[in-house]
Structures are given as structure tokens and as C-alpha cells.
Write a structure and sequence with these properties.
By secondary structure, the protein is α/β, with parallel strands linked by helices. The chain has helices at residues 2-24, 57-78, 181-205, 221-232, 260-269, and strands spanning 34-35, 38-39, 47-52, 84-90, 107-111, 123-129, 135-143, 149-150, 219-220.
Length: 272
């Protein structure tokens, strides 16, 4: 009887896994990880993030800046508001550990004791998810021992953590369906205006997105933060030279442009 029950359980689990694969097939090109056939992602957005009290103020400023860049780009591309929400500072005795079950809090840490990261790792994001793919925790760890970082030293307001600058309404260049010559002309003209408005907004709202020259002995912190936040959103590495989700970031390299490949990946993974 026990053998029959175990056999039935195995068959049931196998059928569940098969259903997951069938259901997630359309997400295979979204650059999202699959776990036992299920796409791994957050059930709800925005993702709430805390910053550990040990993170230096300059790193905290730049991390918040990177979050705002993601929020602006995501909302502009989809019109769906924030991707991340900064909740506040948190005091925790525990360190991220892949082996434990976690505590359900998403925290940005710096590694200053060589317990979390290998020397070759600039940063890492640990994601925990339930069976079925729903993420319940994500921690970002930055290697503060083996690397020195380039920081933007502008003053960013992070004192009120829930205060986020008003986001744009979101526009889609593919929202119209041109039919006649004049409609096509209007479509192209509006696309040009939208692109110009986005470029102007990006360069004025995010001066740090401009490509500064940095030492070839430093890692650009904003580029690293954008990459790890991409992982926190559930994206995997994207093997494209210019993508911020490329797995390699060289010292002295700037990679701060959130492009179509990342935004389309997120829109694909979080389709409504």
C-alpha cells in the first residue's frame, strides 16, 4: 500500500512539473529563470527593498539613484509605475545565506567580512522562491573588500524613503496602428517627439547616466547596482555586449543605459 501511495505521489509531482513547463513556455525568451518548469518572478510589483544600516552613505545614495533610474525607465516603457520601492533602513544580525530559508525581507548589504562573496565577485543577488516560481525574498550583496568603487557624489534625497519623484505617465511608441500616409507620417513624427522627450528627460533627471571617465582601477558602483537590481527583478544574465545584465563588468567600464532589451525582458516576464 505504501509503495502504491509513493508511486501515485511521484506521478502527481511529475504531472505538476509538466504542467509548469507547458504554462511557462511562452516566457522562455524573457530572460527569466525557470525553476522546475515554472517561471521565477515576483507576484506583485513594486519590489520592497531595505538597505542595511552598515551600507556607507555614499553607496546608499548611489543605490537609491540606480533604483530611481529603473523606476523611471520601467514606468516610461510600460506606464505601470515603480519597479522598486525603498522602504527604509534595517538592522539585522543575520547575513544572507543560501542554505537557510530566509526571513522574507529584501535587503541590500555590503560584504565586509569575506563570508559572503568570493574575491572575484563584485556583487551577488540571492533569490528565494516557492515551488511554483513565486519569489518571496531577494538579497543584494556588494563586495566591499576586494574592489574599490567609483561613486557619483551628487546629493540625492533618500531621507524620506517612501518619497519617489513623480513618474511620467508612460508612453508606447507602438500604441498606434498607422493606416493612411498621413497617419503613418503622424506616427513617425510622434515617435520622434517621444524619443526626444525621453532623451531630454533622461539627461536632465539622471545626469549620472552620462558616461563619466573613471579610473581603470575602480568599478562603477551605479553600473553594478543597476545590474544587481536587474537580478532582483528576476532577470538572468543577458549575453549582449551593451546590456547592463551582461555577466562581466570590467574595472573602469561604465554601463548605465537601461535599454530596450532589458525593458522588453521585464515587460515579457511581467505581462498582465
Amino acid at each position: 500500500m505504501r509503495r502504491i501511495f509513493l508511486l501515485f505521489t511521484l506521478l502527481l509531482c511529475a504531472s505538476c512539473g509538466y504542467t509548469g513547463l507547458e504554462g511557462s513556455g511562452e516566457y522562455n525568451n524573457c530572460y527569466f529563470r525557470l525553476d522546475r518548469g515554472f517561471v521565477v518572478r515576483w507576484k506583485e510589483l513594486p519590489v520592497s527593498v531595505y538597505i542595511h544600516e552598515s551600507v556607507p552613505e555614499i553607496a546608499r545614495n548611489n543605490f537609491v539613484y540606480a533604483m530611481d533610474m529603473w523606476n523611471e525607465s520601467w514606468n516610461y516603457h510600460t506606464g505601470r509605475g515603480r519597479l522598486f520601492e525603498l522602504v527604509g533602513e534595517v538592522q539585522l544580525d543575520r547575513l544572507p545565506n543560501k542554505e537557510d530559508g530566509g526571513d522574507g525581507i529584501n535587503v541590500m548589504f555590503v560584504d565586509s567580512n569575506e563570508k559572503l562573496l568570493k574575491s572575484v565577485q563584485q556583487g551577488s543577488t540571492h533569490i528565494r522562491n516557492y515551488f511554483g516560481g513565486a519569489i518571496y525574498e531577494g538579497d543584494i550583496i556588494v563586495n566591499n573588500i576586494h574592489y574599490t568603487y567609483h561613486y557619483e557624489r551628487e546629493s540625492f534625497d533618500y531621507s524620506v524613503y517612501t518619497k519617489v519623484p513623480e513618474l511620467s505617465t508612460g508612453r508606447s511608441l507602438a500604441s498606434t496602428s498607422p493606416e493612411s500616409f498621413w497617419k503613418q507620417f503622424l506616427y513617425v513624427f510622434r515617435s520622434f517627439l517621444n524619443f526626444f522627450a525621453f532623451w531630454k528627460e533622461k539627461t536632465s533627471r539622471f545626469p549620472a547616466a552620462r558616461q563619466p571617465k573613471i579610473s581603470n582601477k575602480q568599478v562603477d558602483f551605479i553600473s553594478l547596482a543597476l545590474h544587481e537590481l536587474g537580478h532582483l527583478s528576476a532577470m538572468v544574465h543577458i549575453d549582449h555586449t551593451l546590456s547592463i545584465m551582461n555577466s562581466k563588468l570590467k574595472k573602469g567600464q561604465i554601463r548605465r543605459d537601461i535599454g530596450e532589451i532589458e525593458l522588453q525582458s521585464l515587460a515579457c516576464g511581467y505581462r498582465e
